[in-house]
Every structure is written in structure tokens, then in C-alpha cells.
Amino acid sequence: MVTQSPSITALAEALARAQGEVENASKNASNPVFRSRYADLAEIINTVRPVLAKHGLALAQFPGYADGVVTLDTVLMHKSGEWMAATSGAPIPPKETKDGRVLPADAQSVGSALTYLRRYSMAAVCGIAQEDDDGNAASRPREQHHQDAPTPEPTPAHTDDSDMCACPRCGGPMWDNRTGKKNPKQPDLKCKDKECDYPIWLGTWRDDLLRDLRAAHELGTIDSDQYIAAEELVNSKVPAKLAKVHKRLHELLVDAV
User: What is the model's pTM?
Assistant: First the structure.
């Protein structure tokens, strides 16, 4: 919902002139998950701020967080005192551990969501386009992204070491317990370093990655084509492929904050 001052005559005239001059932000940043390029927040600010200031306009953004939803109030102001404001939001899905505990969103997830809300809100107000705002995500069926993760299929028998991954914690080699596994509580993979001893249950890891991918898609981090490509890797339950998606998602979130 958009709110505004009693009159926006001067603001509307100034914004029309500014939008006639501002250019689309250049794609100066890389998405480390799927190797696409996009305009980051700094590039959009550097693109629109001089043009807005030239016409007596300024943007102010105020973050908020409540009940698992990150919000951002964006206010467009004119030197005459006229203004327009709107609020955008993005849900941060909680994470569930394998023992059923629900963990709240961490600061990194909130910071990542705020970065994207700031970027998209600023671009929308100024009428400029970005690499991953091309309409493809909206035109693809989104309902499949909101479905619960499919029931995990049985893990295929392990035949060689070509599908193995390094330990996500320490980077060392891992034991493969998949062949002949009888105890469901026994991890599928386990770090060989006794000091690390990091365990992996492939079904749990897969479900966590699917939730992270759905959240990244809804935040605009990845589009539908990228989501489907990553989903195929995750559903394979091949450790090396899961590790690849895990690493790139982590790098993306770190870069976005």
C-alpha cells in the first residue's frame, strides 16, 4: 500500500524528469551460485542518487523485523516537502533441525533479505531494470516452490569415490557408511578427523538445501531457471553435488550482507 502527502504535484514532475534521465544499473556483480550477473545495491545507489538529487529528490529506507518477516519502509521525498512511501516485506523461513527443534532466523539471513529489499525497492521507485528482474520468475509456475519437500528416495548404493564430498566443516575426507547401512541413526557420511567428527544424513541435508533454495527464490536471489537447475542437483542426493549447492548458497549469502 502506498501512502503520500496531500499533494504530490511537484514530486511527480520531478520524478518524471529524473526517470527520463536515469539509466539502468550496470551488471557489476556476479551471483556465485549460478554464475549470473546483476546490479548490486551499491551500483544502484550510485546510479540513481545523483539524478534524484539533481531534481530535488531523496530516498530514505527504514528496516524492520517481526514474526519472521523482514520489512522495509521506502520513502521518496521532494524538496517541496511532498512525499510518497510504501512498505515491502520478505518472510524468513525458520529452520528445523533433525530432532524437530525450530531455529529462528539468524542475523545473516535477515541482513541478506534487507539487502534485496533495498535493492528491489530502490530500483522499482526509480523505474530501472536489473539482470534477475526480467519477469521469468513471475511467469513460471511458483506453486511447486511452495510445496513441501518430496519424500526422500532411497539413497543409491555407493560404487566409487567420484561422488564423494569433502567435510563441510573442516574440508577433510569423509567415511562413507551408505553401503550396507542397517542402523538409520548412523550418519551416511562422517568426517575421518576424530577432532571434527562431522556427521551427514543425506536426507536431512537435502531437505535443508531445498528449503534454502525456496527461500532464495522467493527473495529474488535466484530465478526459476536457476532454482530448477539447483533442485535437480540436490534431488540427486549425490554428496558432491549437494556440497556444490551448499557452498555456493553460503557464498551468496555472505556476499549479499
Answer: 0.49
